Each structure stands twice: as structure tokens, then as C-alpha cells.
Amino acid sequence: MRSLRTARAFALLVGTGALGGIALPALVAGQLPGAPPAGSGGGVAVLSLRAAPAYSGASVGRAEARAVSLLRRAAVAGRVCAYSGTQFVTSWSTAGTSSVIVSLQHLPGRGVLVRLSGEEAAETVGDPAGAAVDPWALALLERHYTLSVVDRPGQSAGRTARVVEARPRGVAAVAGRFWLDQATGLVLRRELYDRQGRTVRAVAFLDVEMSVPLPWSASGRSAASGTGSPLTAGQIPDLRSAGWQVPNRLSGGLELFDARRRDGVLHLSYTDGLFAVSMFSQRGRLDRHSVKGWQPVRVAGTPAWTRPGLSRRVVWSGDGWVHTAVADAPDPVVTAAVTSFAVSPHESFRHRIGRGLDRMGSWLDPTS
Amino acid sequence: MTARDGHLGEAAAALVDGALGAHTRDLALAHVAGCAECRAELDGQRRLKDRLQHLADPDVPAGLAERLLSICASAGPTSAVPTVQAGLPAAGPRRRATRSRRRTTAPRPVSPPVRSRSRRARRFAGGVSALVMGVAVVVVTLGPARDQGPAVTPAVVSYTVEHAQTTGGFPGADPAAGAVMTASANR
Asked: What is the DSSP string of A170-217?
């Protein structure tokens, strides 16, 4: 009997220690116990890189299918419609408000000519290849959000619009609202909100014409910087083996949908269908002069620097890597995503413990 | 807009509250894009609203949980008062009742209470030690990473443009997001 009690006490001690060691990192990384590891290889990577079954509309109600249909039309309209107008883009964060006014001219097949208000210089950006909306992105939006069409048509830029709303599944508050031109389908106005209902980003035409004054002014400086070659799902495991950090998903329901590599920089794009966060990784350590004037913050205990703007930027470095996050999302979403990326979610628990023990060893032998 | 001197004025508060109509709101936001004074006013209004919202949440008085638990304890195990409240730990009487039921079905050999307390104390101390060790390993493992390698200046402007270009094709996304970000990446 005594040996049984001793064995039970021993099991209790081991269990408690294991709980502290296993549950806490999972909680710190923002994962629920029992959830699949964020960075594990296998089938999820294939799904994440746009190989998911195409959206069919069969699994949703008629009202939701109608909203998806309108969004699909909008994505196509943005590429095939000729339009010109004035647009404002405003972004709010805890750090302040950023806003610009631009004049736009879009000619299908040629791209967009954009000029900032009050500036002479213009830039041209080519249209993305293809005119079809990404079925994976639609499926992801539908998975994370309940979509609906407002009964009464709205008005934006003097035009009649159908208004589509996106609510996170199980949440009553609207996270995104789109005003889609009734005649052409073009997005006239787009607003994103945080959980408190505050607008975090608004993009809207002040005036728009469904034509372009000819001849189309192509005098703008081409700003096509290129985005690198997209990587396939099969290349992801090799990247991980080489030490690159490629989690399949980040906290907040953001999933990996695109990976590119150019000039030693890996660009990973994450989205939940509405909000998007990009992670750029490169080897080295951060040159502190490059973040002069940025606001210092901490990410998972590591010093980081952030800069508000139309997109929020966060830069940090550690363990021989420099990471840059660029996001169009509310502050809490950005913070959760960056934190979950910063704690190396793809790193196995064994590797983490090994790294910790190495560090403890370096305390005993500072020369190591 | 109730703007005076060409600025938002009181309309800034209405803008933050979402009380403006769509057209007026667009005009206000367009004005804000080019007016630093109104942008600052807008930021101030949003901060003020944030503070007011936080003030609206009443603080739970210290010791409320203990007082509620003591009420449950005094009501006894047969009370109809639920013993598990949202956000509160399970109350004592129910746990005691469970233990007493266990004792009736499977009685343990009686041992001196002093030895029993001592054994429990040892187990508790051992458990706490193991937990502290586990937490220490986690803290060390997940602590700040060391910097190494060549100094790098991230091409943040270029990254911002690439971000807009790769995400601009989403359903409902701004079709010209890439172009706008290209022109204004330094903003």
C-alpha cells in the first residue's frame, strides 16, 4: 500500500511538471491544448497554399451564397472595369490616424495610374494576372465569417450600391462592410472594424466615373517592384528544414495562403479572408539605425519597433533572423499574430527545450 | 457638417461616434486626409471615447469572490445555491461532499492526522517545486532570443507594397490597394 502511495505521489510530481512544461508554451503561443501544432508540416500546408477545394456555395444558405456571389463579381469588376476617380484611404490604430487622397485611373490590361493628392508624380501598377477571384480566399472568408446582404441598397460616391456585411462566426458585431456598385459590381467603399465596432480602415471613392479619359496617361513611373516567385507547398518543408520559420497559421485564425522568396527574403502572407498580415523574414540582425524614429514595443519579450501608417509595420530580430510584419488589421489582431510568429511556433518542443538548456549552459560558461 | 473655419470642429466627435451620414462622413474623412489639425482632433476624440468606454466597466470589489463563497459555505451542502459560478472556483462544500461520499463507498485505513497532514504538505511542496521547475524551463526557453549575424536594414517600403499587391485580389478588397500603397508607402 505504501509503495502504491509513493508511486501515485511520484506520478503527481511528474504530471505537474509536465503540465507546467507543456501547457504553458502552448498557452503562450496562443494555441489551445490539443490543437495541432501551428507549424507542423503535412496536409495543412497543402491546404494553406491555395490547393483547397474550390468554393461551391453548396454548404451555405441562399442569403450567404448571394453575398459571396456579389463579392466574386466585385473582385472581377476591379480588374475588368475601366474607371477613374478620387479615393481616400484612412487607417486608424492606437498610434494615430493615417490618411491619403489619391486620384486613380484604371484601364483593364494596362493597370492603375495613381497620383497622390497635391503631387505631380504618378505611379503605374500593372493588373494582377487573371481576372478570376481566388476560390480559396472566398472559401476562407466564408469559413471565418457569416456573410449577408443588407436589404436596402446603399449609396456611395453618388451611385447605388449593394451592401455586403461580414460578421465573425458566432459574433453579432460587423467586422467588414462593402459597398458594391449595383451597375458594375466595383467596390465603391470598404470599411473594416475592430471588435468594439470602431472603424480601423476605410477606403472609399469620393467620386468615380466608369470610364477613363483618353488617351490613358501612361506617363507615370512604373512601380512594379515584383513580388518574387510563389513557392509551392512542396517547397515549404525544405524551407523549414533550412531553419526558416513557416507556421501554417497564426493566432486570430490567420492562415498561410501565399509564400514567396526573393533576394534572400521570405514573404509569407496570412489572412482569415478579411484581414491580412504579411511576414517578411531574412537572416541577420536588425540594424537599429534603420528603425530610428519608430515606436519601441516588445513582442513576446523581445524588443521590437512599430510604425503606424496606412498599414501597420512591426520589426524585430532574434536568433539570427530579422522579421518584418506588415498588416491591415486591428491592433489586437496584429499583436496576436506577431506574438504567435515571434515565439517560433514551428519549432518543436524538443528544440525549444534544447535551446533553453543551451542558454542555461551559457550562463555557467559565459565563453560559450 | 457643423464645421467652422473649414475644420471639422464638433463634427469630429460625431465622426468618431459614427453619427454622420455616409456622404458627410466621406467629406469629413477626405478633409482629414489633408488636415493635420483635424487628424489630431480626431485622434483625441477616439482616445477620449476609448477612455470613457473603459470607465464604463465597473471594477469588481476586492474580496467579492470570497464573500460569495462564504455565503455558499454557510448555506451548507444541501443548499439550492449553485456551488460553481461563472469565473469562480468550485465552492468548498461540494468538494467536501464528494469526498465524504467516496469515503463511504471505499473507506481508507485510519492513520494519525499529523502524519497525513505532513504527507500532504510534502506532496504540495513537491508539486509546487515541479511546477516552478517547469515554468523556469519555459521562461528560459521562450525568453528573448539573442541577436547575431550581419546587420540588416529591412526594405520596409518595398515590403509594404508587396503586401498590398499580394492581398489586393481578395474578395471585397480594394482593387487599387497595390497602386495606392505604392504611391503612399512612406506614409
From this structure: T--S--EEEEEETTT--EEEEEEE-TTS-EEEEEEEEEEESS-PSSP-
Cβ-count burial of A10 within 10 angstroms (0-12 exposed, 13-18 middle, 19+ buried)? exposed
Q: What is the average per-residue pLDDT within A65-84?
A: 88
Neighbouring C-beta atoms of residue A21, cutoff 10 Å: 21
The answer, as to whether pTM is greater than 0.80, is: no
* Closest Cα in chain A, distance from residue B76 (Å): 31
**B160 at interface of A, judged by CB pairs closer than 8 A:** yes
Nearest CA in chain B to A99: B33
Hey, what's the cell of A342?
Answer: 515571434
Mean pLDDT of A124-146: 71
- Residue from the list B46, B130, B162 with its beta carbon closest to the beta carbon of A16: B130
Query: Which residue of chain A is at minimal alpha-carbon distance from B32?
Result: A99
Among candidates B53, B133, B156 on the partner chain, residue whose Cβ is nearest the Cβ of A324: B156
Angle, nearest 10°, between helix axes B22-34 and B36-55?
A: 120
CB A108 within 8 A of CB A81: yes
Whole-angstrom CA distances from B93 to B68, B80, B84 are 13, 12, 11
Note the ipTM here: 0.75
